[in-house]
Amino acid sequence: MQKNYLTIKTKGSNEVDIKKSRFICNIARVQNEEEANNFIESIKLENKKATHNCYAYVIGQDDHIQRASDNGEPSGTAGVPILDAIKMIGIHNTVAVVTRYFGGIKLGAGGLIRAYSNATTKAIESVGVIEKVLQTEITINVDYKLFNQLQYHLNENDINIIDTQYTDKVSVIVAVDNHYIENFKQDIVNLLNNRVNMVDGDEKYFELDFNPYKNNKKD
To answer: Where would I find the Impact N-terminal domain in this sequence (predicted)?
Structure first.
């Protein structure tokens, strides 16, 4: 059964410097292992002179595919911390490669674990997180004189507005959670005294901004 899930907002990178070593995390969305491995190889190719190119990825809404590699670092000090950082935030279909350029100072096992974990977390923070929400498109057709009332209602109820088209009428295309469709339609009918026409569209995933740290903040 399909469900909503979190992933990164966009492909990107971030660098942290720890005791003269550079840790560069490149991160991307992937849909399968082939895409993940292609991304890993591209980063390795770009960083041939790096000391290490360690990585981890999770694929599937239930993370049924998980891989991690220390790429020459002491066992358990790189790949698993990268993987844990991804899983801690709860994102899916994501690959992260942390490239290390050694600065001459050894960090020890604990230092390496913190460094690889921190580099990954900072990269995720820098690109942002979105929620992939399974919703159905609904086109709402109204007369111009009712548009402001409709728009206010949609904004007040945080309805996902996809597009607005202006012809002989105003057509507002929204995306609504599947379990809420009937209630949503009834609310619109009541709001506009049935002076509205609504047409169902496709069911698909839409991307909504998400703050994974919101619920962890203290008052």
So the answer is: 19-124
